[in-house]
Amino acid sequence: MSILSPTAATAPSELIKKRPKLLTAERLKGTKDRYDLIVIGSGLAGLTVANRLGRDGHSVLLLEQHYNFGGMATWFKRQNGHIFDISLHGFPVGMIKTCRKYWTKEIADSIVPLKSIRFDNPQFSLQTTFDREDFTRILTQKFEISPENVAGFFDFARSMNFYDDQKLTTRELFQRFFPDRTDVWRLLMEPIAYANGSTLDDPAITYGIVFSNFMSKGVYTFQGGTDLLIKSMKAELHKNGVDVRNYAQVEQILVEGGRAVGVVVNGQRISARAVLSNANVKNTILDLVGEEHFAPEYVAEAKGVRMNSSSTQVYLGLRRGETLPFIGELFFTSTHPTFDSEALTALECTSRTYSFYYPEIRPGTDRYAIVASINSNYRDWADMSDEDYLRWKERYAEDAIRSLERYLPDVRAKVEHVEVATPRTFKFFTQHALATSFGTKFEGLKVSQDLPKQLPGLFHAGSVGIIMSGWLGAANYGVIVANEVDRYLRGAPDAVAKETA
Ligand SMILES: Cc1cc2nc3c(=O)[nH]c(=O)nc-3n(C[C@H](O)[C@H](O)[C@H](O)COP(=O)(O)OP(=O)(O)OC[C@H]3O[C@@H](n4cnc5c(N)ncnc54)[C@H](O)[C@@H]3O)c2cc1C
Hints:
Blueprint: H1 12-18, E1 34-40, H2 44-55, E2 60-63, E3 75-78, E4 82-85, H3 94-102, H4 105-109, E5 111-113, E6 117-121, E7 124-128, H5 132-142, H6 147-159, H7 170-177, H8 182-196, H9 204-217, E8 220-222, H10 225-239, E9 243-245, E10 250-256, E11 259-265, E12 268-277, H11 281-289, H12 296-303, E13 310-318, E14 330-334, H13 341-345, E15 351-357, E16 369-376, H14 378-382, H15 386-405, H16 411-414, E17 415-421, H17 423-430, H18 443-454, E18 458-460, H19 470-491, H20 495-500
Parallel strand pairs: 1-2, 1-12, 2-9, 6-14, 12-18
Antiparallel strand pairs: 3-4, 5-8, 6-7, 10-11, 11-12, 13-16, 13-17, 14-15, 15-16
Helix pairs in contact: 2-10, 2-19, 3-19, 5-6, 6-9, 7-9
The structure holds flavin-adenine dinucleotide.
């Protein structure tokens, strides 16, 4: 008998058959013929750009192909009151400032710290608040590294910025401060690999910036759950006059006279003075625009951009009335001997991070849920037959429960709903190249930033360059690009008006 809940055992190929009938012109009823800005995609970057520009008085249309808004900052509900968050595991404290400034005080005030993060692997077992002070304690007392070395590492990581030497890799950084101490490397690297898909061979600045963001004050979450966050963001967008549409598949970005002038969405043409894509940067350039509109060198650069890894997740919903003892909110587990980026994404899964959702995450409810997240490669899952696909999903579910029983022996009996999402699921719901969960490798940032130079009126904001991924990175990149779009809209001649004059 399948371990998966009956409503969860569908393969994405079955979902795909349902999609076309949703793409009707109905979804666009009442839209205007033209806007100042069209935003393609409602990830945290797209939402933030739309809100910032709507608030400043620009007319903005936000188009999302999915039924839900939020991109990977999303959730889903199942019968018997189960609710699962996809990417609400933790983000740095900086999200409070970003939300207060570019969203609302209420959203910022709902961001709260996690209390406890745990690790269990063949090299160590420990519990931490995941900040500089506690990591210093662990590194000096448990791992017996000298305080000077630990302080030197933290200060160096903190001082790293975008203009630094980009040749130094994270592996070289670790080797410089903690030679051959693979246990220390694992403590420092494993959580960041789960946060943004980076590896020991990525540029050290990507590690330094993200790690230091977390270390400043630990890991934070959104109290109320992703559903409340996105509901609050939608309310704010409406208040700021943004026209928000779901089931709106953008098929093409229109180019005329060397400028982006609008989109084709669900078969309908809508004009705009500027277009911002929150879709994957490669999809934007190569599919939505088309390479013929760019210089060949830029196309080559775009084609060379590598994606970060994708994800598999196992969702476990506890039966109403069942409870869990508090064992921390985030638990990094592995049976692999050392930290190994290849092993971390291998189909034969040896490492998973459990997120525990206690009732406090959604005050007023009494429900518990557990989500096991695994870094995965799209290519391992893409071409499986439906039979193999379901077999692997079953295996991931069974392994996630069995591994959890080591820490919570009675958990299996408490679980009522079991469901698995794979890179194929993420591809279906986001359309990202290689189903990337965390955008692109470092080189993607330059390609994203150069887009308006290549094609005036077209901007990109979304997970790129490792630094600009995750909730905070995506939202902050949205803020940076929104400022550029604002300048463009205020300074640029009205291309559409000129065209139609
Ligand atoms: C399993 C998992 C766990 C994660 N955990 C964390 C975590 O704990 N902490 C953290 O900070 N980050 C986490 N992340 C990463 C984080 O969720 C993302 O980096 C961030 O949400 C991405 O935002 P984005 O703006 O890049 O857009 P995305 O979320 O990628 O959204 C892009 C949107 O564009 C839409 N779109 C694409 N093409 C089109 C088109 N042609 N027409 C219309 N719409 C289109 C998509 O449907 C999607 O809604 C996780 C990600 C995953 C997958």
